[in-house]
């Protein structure tokens, strides 16, 4: 199919010698930092290793992305190789260690330094690191990365990627797609920092993990030592405390300044352990699900009812696919949605570089973070059409039927659990994140109640949307509804669901499928996907084919459709318990032209004043 090459305004500003050069981990900042983005050599082969390379690739853009300079699809049976020489300043030094970091490599990576295997990693969305000190030479250090990517041909996590893209699924990408960097640390250094605000106690709980690198290699790394921490802000004198690595420390914060989208106030943190010193930040905020004065479960922010009006954010770019061309581009998306009156983004089945979350933290944008879906092929007749009908009639199905949801592979299920744990661990210090979304529309869903328990044990300070859309199992904090086609029907709270709203035969079938389908809903109700209204703007869409749930041709008509849904379905239901909405979606992506923004981010397709006016009306 013919494709128009789109690009955003930032694509031509990229300096190949300084690509995405900002510090990639704002929650744990050191002075020593070497960015390895830029021009590498690459080759695509079979399983064999090739000594000759095909040409240059611009890291961290995947080979499928135009900005990489390659624009070639890596197939499941192929191997992608990267090679570069490290800067001369990276060499062995007594009493110091060199840590190599990868923001994300899709899907499997084997890392070699001077021909020595130093790290294997599986999972295309999570960062990983390795101490490469012992493999370094004094000069000419060769870094090589081997990559395999099965995309949607296997059960690994893949998000919206599909080898045969189309409709609501997008171009699969592979390889290095987030920043590669190195930092030098002392032999005893700070490896991890956990910060949890205790809002009601006017305090913060801190835990520091340090690594003491032994001279005897047989001993392995160990957590050891004491640390000192300083918390400060423009409004208070610095608070200092000391603690022991590996043990929790609670630090009082007098007269705390609350964080919110309207007032994203951040505190600065500095931690010192021996010779190592890092900078971070935190916020005082609380997210909870509580009953309001009428007894209706609501989302609360900082102990007050707070309506969350959000947008589905896929995080795709025409020139970079998963990788934004620069920081400014990421900030543009967040600021534009905030300027339109939205206060929340649902990051959809993708994990962003940590700088994206940092910008949400400092600009004041709530985030619902999806776990990345995996599993075998999804049966569209079941997880799309069948599930939509089941949702309309409030029919439920237990997610123990693993074959229907693509989750027969035990290793795949274990991989999902491991990645969910890592996702929460890596992102939990970001105050903008208020909800973990475990499964979306049954894609690779399994044992959601067990996954909810694991997530809750990992992080009890946030809310959980157990099953966004359908195949709800009754757990978590949110009754999560997707509605693109029907009038909005909220679950009943005062009597048995289905007592008079569906045919008796349907009610009996529901009980047979799910069991006790007549219980009252006690969770918060959220409309976590709606809209999908499509309008293709000439010169600003990629494919001739247009995908969306309702097609418009003019801006006033599109805006009118948006207004009609908000005024008819959303605003009247707020009094009935609706507490959050997520409009589909932030920008067009390939064939899917249902964005508020065009794919190239040049045009806002809805009338801005109308969107602001309606967002102002959506409140508790």
Structural class: alpha/beta
Sheet bearing the most strands, described?
8 strands, parallel
Strand order of the largest sheet: 29-28-27-26-25-34-31-30
> What share of residues are in beta strands?
25-35%
Using the CA coordinates, give the radius of gyration. Answer: 25 Å
Overall pLDDT metric: 92
Number of helices: 8
List the helices and strands and how they pair.
Elements: E1 34-35, E2 38-45, E3 55-59, E4 79-85, E5 96-102, E6 105-106, E7 108-113, E8 116-122, E9 128-131, E10 142-148, E11 161-162, E12 170-171, E13 175-176, E14 180-186, E15 188-198, E16 203-212, E17 226-233, E18 236-244, E19 249-252, E20 267-273, E21 276-282, E22 287-291, E23 297-301, E24 304-305, E25 308-313, H1 327-339, E26 344-347, H2 354-363, E27 366-370, H3 380-392, H4 410-427, E28 433-440, H5 448-458, E29 463-468, E30 478-483, H6 504-514, E31 524-531, E32 533-535, E33 550-552, H7 555-574, E34 578-584, H8 608-617
Helix pairs in contact: 1-2, 4-5, 7-8
Features:
34 strands, globular, alpha/beta, 620 residues, 6-stranded antiparallel sheet, 31% strand
Written account of the structure:
With 620 residues, this protein is an alpha/beta fold. The chain contains eight helices and 34 strands. The protein has an eight-stranded parallel β-sheet with strand order 29-28-27-26-25-34-31-30, covered by helices on one side. It has a six-stranded antiparallel β-sheet with strand order 3-2-4-10-7-8, with no helix packed on it. Strands 1-14-5-9 form a four-stranded antiparallel β-sheet, with no helix packed on it. A hairpin with a 2-residue loop joins strand 23 (297-301) and strand 24. Helix 7 (555-574) runs parallel beside helix 8. It is globular and about 70 Å long. Residues 216-220, 495-502 and 512-518 have low confidence and may be disordered.
